């Protein structure tokens, strides 16, 4: 019988996630992962495989958690339009700019690895498609609630909102002032989400 694991798997995954998030895949060494996990090499490899396997597991878990949170937000939102606004404005909520500078693990990883690592590109497509589906549902709801012009296409606008958010993430990583970033986000939302003519 295999021995039960004598470590908190979730804690190890979160520690590895943060190391990859802060440094990127290439700059994170196995020594870094051993240090933050507190595990020996045999335990880390035995539980999660090599660095690439661990990274893909962390990335998938991160994406799934974000997707669950977005779906839950839509289910609890008073208005569908609020979900899309919050999605685009999300990284502007920290006045210190630290959240914007750190960016998003998926977006950072996609920029670093998608061209050379098909698994990362596939995970990004999967995650972005799922996000767009939730945003489409939010915009369909917004239209039926009278918060969005009836001629706006929810599916196309959901993709545009995703593109806007990814662009803001890129600008945020450069250290752009949070006030300027917020102004860009609000201006973009005003164009993407026209209200019905009353």
In short:
With 198 residues, this protein is mainly α. It contains ten helices and no strands.
Task: Explain this structure.
The chain contains 10 helices and no strands. The mean pLDDT is 94. The chain starts with 8 loop residues before the first helix and ends in a 6-residue tail after the last helix. The protein is elongated. By secondary structure, it is mainly alpha-helical. Helices cover 72% and strands 0% of the residues.
Sheet with the most strands?
Answer: none
What's the helical proportion of residues?
A: over 70%
Provide the low-confidence segments as ranges: none
The overall average pLDDT, rounded, is 94
Report the C-alpha radius of gyration, rounded.
19 Å
Strand proportion, as a percent range, falls in: under 5%
Helix/sheet category: mainly alpha
Number of strands: 0
Question: What is the approximate shape?
Answer: elongated
What is the tally of helical segments? 10
List keywords for this structure.
198 residues, elongated, 72% helix, 10 helices, mainly alpha
Write the layout of secondary structure elements.
Layout: H1 9-23, H2 30-37, H3 41-48, H4 51-76, H5 80-89, H6 98-102, H7 105-113, H8 118-144, H9 154-173, H10 178-192
